[in-house]
Structure formats: C-alpha cells, structure tokens
Amino acid sequence: MIDNHRxxxxxxxxxxxxxxxSTVFGHGANATWASDHVSLRIEESPPRIVNIVxxxxxxxxxxxxxxxGLQPPTTGKALWxxxxxxxxxxxELLEFRREVQVVFQDPxxxxxxxxxxxxxxxxxxxxxxxxxxxxxxxxxxxxALKAVNLRPPDVLGRYPHQLxxxxxxxxxxxxxxLVKPKVIVADEAISMLDxxxxxxxxxxxxxxxxQLGISxxxxxxxxxxxxxxxxxxxxxQRGRAVExxxxxxxxxxxxxxxxxLLLESIPSPDPDQRWGETAIPASELDELGAKRSIGTRSRCxxxxxxxxxxxxxxxxxxxxYRVGDQDVACVLYADIPRNEADLxxxxxxxxxxxxxxx
Amino acid sequence: xxxxxxxxxxxxxxxxxGPAASSKSANPRVIGDLPLLQIKDLDVxxxxxxxxxxxxxxxxxxxxxxEIVGIAxxxxxxxxxxxxxxxQIIRFPNRVTHGQVLFSHDGKEQVDxxxxxxxxxxxxxxxHIAYVPQGSMNxxxxxxxxxxxxxxxxxxxxxxERAAKAKVPSLLAKVGLDEHVAKLYPxxxxxxxxxxxxxxxxxxxxxxxxxxxxxxxxxxxxVQRLILETLLxxxxxxxVAIMIVSHDLPVHAQLVERIGIxxxxxxxxxxxxxxxxxxxxxxxxxxxMHAIPSIGGSRERLEGIGxxxxxxxxxxxxxxxxxxxxxAMDICTRVMPVLAEVAPGMREIADGRTVEVVNxxxxxxxxxxxxxxxxxxxxxxxxxVHATATLADGGRR
Lengths: 358, 397
Description:
The structure holds two protein chains of two kinds.
Chain A: E1 16-25, E2 32-42, E3 49-53, H1 60-67, E4 75-80, E5 83-84, H2 90-99, E6 100-103, H3 118-127, H4 134-147, H5 152-155, H6 165-178, E7 183-187, H7 195-212, E8 215-220, H8 223-229, E9 232-237, E10 240-246, H9 247-252, H10 257-265, H11 285-291, H12 311-315, E11 321-323, E12 326-328, H13 345-356
Parallel strand pairs in A: 3-8, 3-9, 6-7, 7-8
Antiparallel strand pairs in A: 1-2, 1-4, 4-5, 9-10, 10-12, 11-12
Helix pairs in contact in A: 3-6, 4-6, 6-7
Chain B: H1 6-13, E1 37-48, E2 51-63, E3 68-72, H2 79-86, E4 95-103, E5 111-112, H3 118-127, E6 129-132, H4 146-156, H5 161-174, H6 191-203, E7 209-213, H7 221-238, E8 241-245, H8 249-255, E9 258-263, E10 266-272, H9 273-278, H10 283-289, E11 340-341, E12 345-348, E13 354-357, E14 362-363
Parallel strand pairs in B: 3-8, 3-9, 6-7, 7-8
Antiparallel strand pairs in B: 1-2, 1-4, 4-5, 9-10, 10-14, 11-14, 12-13
Helix pairs in contact in B: 4-5, 4-6, 6-7
C-alpha cells in the first residue's frame, strides 16, 4: 500500500519501506538525482500490486534497486520489516532474499547459457535448503512450473537458447515461486516480450496475488499494463514521485499535469480513438533534463513544460498534497477543498486560474 | 490495383493533431497507375549451422504511392528480413531465393529490384528508397557533427557539398529540429532528437518511400508521439510513402492506413487498419488484439496467445499458426492457406462475429474458402454467393 509522508505513527513495521530516500550519482554541478526524497510502503497483507511508472531516466529502477538491497540510498532508509536492508546479518539477508524476489527485464541475458534450465531451480533449492531429497526437489520444481503454466518436459533438461523469451520469463517467475516469496519485484519484466506473451506474464502475477498472496512491485514504462494490473501506482518524474494513488483512479482522473501528459501520449489500439489535442505539449526536454541537471532542484521539475506553471512552481519544490485517494506533487492542489477532490485537472485549473494568474 | 481512394485515405487518417490534415501536397507529383512497390512471392532463406531457415516465405505485399503501411508481427516473424529484402541488403550466404520486388517511383516504369544490380540499387537506395534501420539512432557517428552526417549521404548521391550544406537547416526544420542542432554532436542530443536526425538523413534526397524499422521502440511515450507526428507531417509535406515496421499495434492504429500482419515468415492478413484491428479476419490478428490492455477499457482478464512461435528451421505443416489457433480445423494441419482477397459482404470472422467485410482485405486462413488453394469460389456465411470482386489471381496481387 502506498502511504506517503503520513507514515510516522504506524504500529506495525511494513514488509518493505522506502523512507524518504535520495540516491545521488556524481556530485556538484554534475550530480544526477536518480531518486529524490521518495517514500513507499508495501504492507505484508493484503497482497497488493504496486506499479512504478515513468519515462526512462525517471528513477524507477533506482528506487527498485534500493528496495532490493542493490543500491544503497545516499540519504534516507530502505527498510525490511523495520530493519535497515543495508545492515542485515547474513541470516537475515538470506531470509530477506527469500521474501523479496526479483524478475529482471532481459529474459535473454539472465541465464548462464552453458547450463540447462534445471540449474536455476537446483541452485535456488540448495541455497534456501528447500528440499531434503532429490524426489522432493523435483516435486517442488514441477509444482513451480505448473504455477506458471509450463510443462516440465518442455523446460527441464533444455538450454536457455532453446526457450522463447516468454518461456524464460516464466521460468524466472517459477524460480521466484519456489521460495514462496512475499513480494516479487518485476523490473520491466514484460517490456522485451511480444504482446501476445505479455498478457500471459501479467496474468501469472495476478494469479500469484489472488491465490498465493504474493505482492508485486511492477516497474514499467507501459501505463496500460499498470492499468490492467490495477493496485496502486507511483508516477515518477526526474527522480521524484509526482503522483500516487490507486492505479485506476490515477489513470481515470490524472491530477498531475505530467501524469496527464503521459496518459495522453499513449497510442490507443483503437484507430477510431485518435490522439486528441493535448493541453500539455509533448517535449523532449525531460529526456534531456535527465541527462543534465538544469539549475536548481528546489522547484517543480516539470515547470518548464507545464502550461499551468506560475511563480510558485519555480520558487519551491511542491510537497505531496492529499486529493481524494491520490497524492499529487503540484501546487494547484495546495489547500484544495475536500469537496473538490473529484475535479479533473482542467476543472481545477479553471477554478484556480484567477488566484494563480501571474 | 489503381487506388482512387488514396487521397481520401490521407484525410481520413490525418491524425487530428497539427495542421497537417488540411495542408495537401505543396508540390504534387504526377504519378502513374503502377503501385509504388509490389512484393511478389518473396522467399528469403538463411543459412544456419542447423540447416536452411526459411525466414520469409511467399510474402506478398503492395504499397501504393503516398500511403502509410504498417508491418506488424512478433519477434522472429520475419518483419525486418522482409524489409532487408526490399532494400537488397541481405548478405551472402543468406539470400532471396525467389520472388520479385517491383518498384516504381513514378508509377509509370517498374523495375525489379531483384535484378537491377548493385550499382543501380545503390542509387535507388537513398535517392528513391530511404531506410531507417532499427536502432539506427544509436549508430550516428559520435565524433562527427550532425551537419556532416546529413551532408554525407547527399554528397554520395552527387550533390555538391556546398548545396548539401545549404539544405541542412531546411531538413532539420522538416523534422522539427532547431538549426543549431547542425553543429552539435550526437551525445548532446536526446534519443528523440537523434531519431529526428536519422529521419532528416532519410528524407535528404526526397525519396518516394521511407522504410522505418521500429522507429520509436526505445523511446518514451511522449517522444514516440512526437516522432510519429513528424512522420505523418512528412508524408503530407513530401508526398512520400512510409512503411513502418513495428511490433506495437497501438502505434500502427494511430499512424498507418493499411497494415500487414506477419506470422512465421508469412504475411497472414492485410487490409485497412480500422477493419483489420477491429474486425480481424485471421485468428492470430484477433488474438493479438485481445492481448493488449487499454486504459479506460474493461479490466477483464486478457487472454494472450498460448504456445510459442515455431522455428524457421522447421515450420509446421499446413497453416503455421494451427498449433496455437483456437479455431484450428483438420485441414489447417495439412494444407497451407494462401493470402487471398476475401469477397466483400457479410462474413463470419475469427472471433465468431458476423460483420460486413469491405473491399481490399486479404487473409491467409482456411476460415475463408478463398484462402484454400483450389477451393470453390467464395460463399458468404449467410449463404449469399458473392461472385464479384474475387481476384482471379488469388493472393498474387
């Protein structure tokens, strides 16, 4: 569950938590803020799918790597059951790795081509001491393959190059399934697959959640995939979380101008639904901005592209404002009355325009 | 074959963005009746250590002047190889073993690119056919200024360096880049800007066909949209036909007028984009459309297509999709269907609906008797006989 900036008084430590983490690469004028004061909570139950979306360079993967214990944040804390992920004992680390599994983007690069697929499973079983006998091990493997709709003879004894991308990605999910994790971090797990296979992988993640109680942190640049998976969403832009909330609410009524722009840029598979005129001009500035840090960061980093930008946007960084069940980092929503929480971005702009006029 | 509807298509597909929709050709080309490109029964074989792979097999496709055609299909379906065959850049020992690629830049004279020879082909490439290969935005020379890289190709095609340099600002403007970009190096540009530079290089010689292989694949959505809009504007400005290869069906839905769907080395369906994606004739196309999530749509479970693409080393007997096809019949395992025009009229289509099939839709599937070699003439699902409009030469258009 996403809960931002309001998590100070929680009795139970969350399964996974990012507490106001920043990750800075380089320093001085060349510093790149891959994540900039990002907070995220994933509770143990109920299981939930949390989507992290944004363009390339927005800091999605860095946030995920911090959660996985692969990228220590420069400031802030990454916690697992209340413990600092980067200060775990050896035994705790093993348990952490069992509970938090990962599926990476590239189903072609993840396997050692010299060994048959079986090794992926056997190593996992040995590492986590899952089986006492060979029979038990092969029973576990069969069960895991069944969970991802693969027939054991199609996979076992074969080499990675003999499997398709979709099959390999399913093998990775089966491997994750073996250790009965609490959460799977899927970093662009479907972006290299063909459309026909993407749905298969997403359905497995949905089944894992519904039938086995496994949560997923789903990192993607594909907003329609996030919409399909549902759950919660965190929209990132240049290292910052600019909008958070339930996926369906965020995409049905995007409140941040950046979220709106992203949504309007997605081509619809229906040729009758043409791209509309966008209020927010698409631009390559963001991509360039990710390459170079332009000026100060104590402002809204979307202001140079935002048609609604005014002085306040350039003056300070907008905090996350609570609007309905969404959190939005945009000054348009400062002190928004409770009864206006359902307004669309355009309506909010219209009602606030006089006050915001430069 | 002559298509009076080309002009209408232009307007009907004019994506509502930008002023492009209204601005008709500034310099209309006089074009004859012959289509721009006709691919006939094209086979491409790759030589591999494990035998001959028939990567493209009996592909048929027609591209008309000034139209935007999409080629969609999953990885390994032969999309890129088909494009490479058009451009004659398939390298020995891999080769085009059979077929014709008839090209006519003015619609009057046709040449078979298979037989023109290397020198002439080299002239045609760049001059009349521009190619934007997959990932080419990453192949810009890192130590040369953008300007020099644009000029390079023009000089090679006989334009003086001075004249070529003078043209650079207008080329950059056509793809929506500022003049100062000419003096920059590739590392100073974003991905979207690099892709624009590549397109500027492609249009430098005012070709009549631009072939773009996955032009937006590594780009973010909002940049992707900018690039696609740039391509649309170019078509209207330069009267150029564009062939877009992409695995991304929504991109096709927004951009192209006609689409060809490839599966396992063959083109299995072609038609106008709207009917093809909304009333797919081939079960594969239908399956693809039912595998795509869309925002705002229902969030019911998507089906996806089970199974895996067969290997080009050993395509299955009969229809190559039969082992993954929900509607496979006995004949599908034995007889390979041919790409043929479906007679217009009320027909039952792949997902079981009965819809009105319009003109100019081709499919290779036994659900339609036209596709079965040597079968009786088309009979519509509702029993009416449509004797008209069935092409005598079947899939060989």
